[in-house]
Every structure is written in structure tokens, then in C-alpha cells.
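name: query_chain
kind: protein
chains: 1
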Amino acid sequence: MSKVFGYELILNLEECDKSIITSSKKLKNYVDKLCDLIEMEKYGKTLLPYFGERAEYTKGYSLVQLIETSSIVGHFSDFWGTAYINIFSCKSYDANLAKKFTKEYFAAKRMKARFLTR
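structure:
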């Protein structure tokens, strides 16, 4: 591929601190700090709906933050204590810095990461 459209970091985090992944305030704080860290400009407010309450294993927050160059999306499972985060941007950013910060912020015991050039 000769032209790069964007960069996507896909993170699966396990055994996260449940007091963080179940707090809308802490999730919004994560987005604010991440955007500052990787130098992304937020576009609009952070969307943080809580849903999936029909079953224990499906309930939790989802997060959408548009950024000037694309989006940050996250899904959080109260039951499993997991977080699934995608950071996509047409502007390059330090994926290693984003990985390290995210794992530490959510106090995840394990993390799988994949970085794609699109």
C-alpha cells in the first residue's frame, strides 16, 4: 500500500480495576488524558451510554469520542472486568505511549494489542 489513510490501535484489556471501568467520570478522565498525551483534539463531547442491563455479562459503558482526525471507541464489561479500546486517527501518534498509558490507567493485569496501518 503506497498511501496511508490512518493508524489504528486495538487494545483488549483483562482484569481491569472495576472501580474505573464502571465510573463515567473516570472513563471521561481517561479520554481527556489520552487525547492530551497523544496530541489529539477532541471534537464534541464524550458519549458514555450505559446499557446492556438485561444480562449480567452484557452490561457496561460504551465510549465514543470523536477527534479531529477520527475517533476513540471503547466498550467495558462490568461482569468480566474487561475493556476493549480502538484508537483510530489519520494523524500519526505514539501507539506505544497510548498502550502503556491505557494499561496503567485501567490497572489491567493483561493486555493484547494490535496496531494497523490502513
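note: The two ends are 9 Å apart (CA to CA).
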